């Protein structure tokens, strides 16, 4: 039994109320938060929750590792592409895609600092990992654990900028 396997299996969490969902986000992100419509509380989340606001400018991620007390959320801003559209390799799931599918999403770490991540625009990384593994007849666990690890690092980086909101 590898660490990765238990990592994946346990990564399910629930959101009890709208308040809990909103509070998963930092204050700076709450200002940009548009919740998905028709959410019924409480609900269970498998792996992580992600959605886009209607204009597509923001993509949200809500994630919780088993050892975290509460889920944490972040708002990514889609970075307008400059220059020629190139697409690329998602740094989280290694899927290859066009500039429509993969691009820079930025996270405001503080008022002046933001970090960019070259990832799938819709953060469908786990589905891509599972699909790729299935087609290859491989176990997706290692790549899923790696994906969670990258998300964990992202939230750790954000934490380093606290308590400034
Ligand atoms: Zn991806």
Strand content: 25-35%
Unreliable stretches, pLDDT < 50, 5 or more residues? 1-7
Structural class: alpha+beta
Number of helices: 5
User: How far do the termini sit from each other?
Assistant: 40 Å
Strand order of the largest sheet: 3-4-5-8-9
Radius of gyration: 16 Å
Q: What is the strand tally? A: 9
- Counted up, domains total 1
Morphology: globular
Helix content: 25-40%
* Average pLDDT metric: 89
Largest sheet: 5 strands, antiparallel
Listing every helix as H and every strand as E from the N terminus to the C terminus, the arrangement reads HEHHEEEEEEEEHH
Which ligands does the model contain, each kind named once? zinc ion
Could you explain how this protein is built, in words?
- The chain has about 160 residues and is of the alpha+beta class.
- It has one domain.
- It contains five helices and nine strands.
- The strands form three sheets. It has a five-stranded antiparallel β-sheet. The protein has a two-stranded antiparallel sheet with strand order 1-2. Strands 6-7 form a two-stranded antiparallel ribbon.
- A hairpin with a 5-residue loop joins strand 3 and strand 4.
- About 25% of the residues are buried.
- The N terminus is likely disordered.
- Zinc ion (ZN) binds next to strand 9 and helix 4.
Short précis:
The protein is an alpha+beta fold. The chain has helices at residues 3-10, 18-23, 27-30, 125-136, 141-159, and strands spanning 12-15, 43-46, 48-52, 58-63, 72-78, 88-89, 96-97, 102-108, 114-120. It has one domain (3-159).
């Amino acid at each position: 039994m590898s660490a990765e396997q238990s990592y994946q299996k346990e990564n399910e969490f629930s959101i009890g109320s709208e308040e809990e969902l909103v509070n998963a986000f930092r204050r700076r992100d709450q200002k940009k938060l548009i919740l998905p419509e028709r959410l019924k509380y409480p609900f269970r989340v498998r792996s992580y929750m992600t959605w886009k606001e209607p204009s597509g400018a923001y993509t949200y991620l809500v994630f919780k590792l088993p050892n975290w007390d509460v889920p944490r959320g972040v708002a990514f801003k889609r970075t307008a592409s400059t220059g020629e559209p190139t697409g690329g390799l998602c740094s989280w799931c290694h899927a290859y895609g066009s500039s429509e599918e993969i691009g820079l999403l930025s996270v405001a770490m503080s008022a002046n600092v933001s970090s960019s991540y070259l990832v799938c625009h819709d953060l469908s990384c786990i589905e891509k990992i599972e699909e790729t593994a299935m087609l290859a007849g491989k176990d997706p666990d290692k790549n899923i654990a790696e994906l969670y690890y990258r998300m964990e690092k992202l939230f750790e980086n954000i934490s380093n900028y606290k308590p400034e909101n």
